[in-house]
Amino acid sequence: MTSAELLTDAFGRISETVHEAVGGLATSQLAERLDRDANSIAWLLWHLTRVEDDHVAGAFGVPQVWTEYGKHFELPFPASDIGYGHSSAQVAHVTASADLLTGYQDAVREQAVRLVSGISDADLERVVDEAWDPPVTLGVRLVSVISDCLQHAGQAAFVRGILLRS
Predict the structure, then answer these.
(1) Among candidate residues 52, 15, 48, 66, the one with its CA nearest the CA of residue 141
(2) Per-residue pLDDT for 12 more than 90?
(3) What is the mean pLDDT of residues 115-141?
(4) What is the rounded CA–CA span in Å between residue 11 and residue 44?
(5) What are the residues facing 137 on neighbouring strands?
(6) What is the DSSP secondary structure assignment for residue 132, as one 8-state letter?
(7) With contact defined as beta carbons under 8 Å apart, do 16 and 146 qualify?
């Protein structure tokens, strides 16, 4: 298996987990919060997809999918907002249908797969962010994105399980 194939598989697993987390849930269930400060499934999936979109597009120097897709969400946030550090009130603003959440994730996955499918092992050593010490390479950035996204997708699946048992 090549690095490109491995990364393609990983981004596919994020998308699969997102689809599983929303399957059969109503928009109201996706927006439900386990307590007043908890993240909803909708927010978790919007946020993980925004992070994937922002970080992968940035690493490859291409426009984010959000540039066009974000209009469908009608959120009161700047276009650059990925949800990092959101307050409880901001989390509450993120309401979306399963179709909207999975549609955005599918579009982001398609772009990510297109971008990583042609990379070589040598490409993974390219520095994509000088703001850190040590500077962040493409390989480190992609692993970080995949890890973060899978953690949030797992959180969404956990919330789903609790909601369905209630």
Answers:
(1) 52
(2) yes
(3) 95
(4) 17
(5) 127
(6) S
(7) no
Q: Which residues contact 163 (CB under 8 A, 6 or more apart)?
A: 25, 29, 32, 41
pTM of the full predicted structure?
0.96
Structure tokens given for 59: 């690493």
The amino acid present at 43, given as its one-letter code, is W
- Whole-number Å distance between alpha carbons of 119 and 123: 6
Burial 77-107 (b: 16+ CB within 10 A, else e): eeeebbbeebeeeebbbbbbbbebbbebbeb
Determine the average pLDDT of the residues in 101-117. 98
- Amino acid letter at 98? A
pLDDT tens per residue, range 14-34: 999 999 999 999 999 999 999
- Cβ of 63: how many Cβ atoms within 10 Å? 10
Cα separation, 49 vs 45, whole angstroms: 6
pLDDT of residue 166: 80
The residues, ordered by sequence, that sit 6+ positions from 116 with a Cβ below 8 Å of its Cβ are 4, 7, 8, 11, 56, 142
The answer to whether 18 and 48 are in contact (CB under 8 A) is: yes
User: Using an 8 Å Cβ cutoff, are 60 and 115 in contact?
Assistant: yes
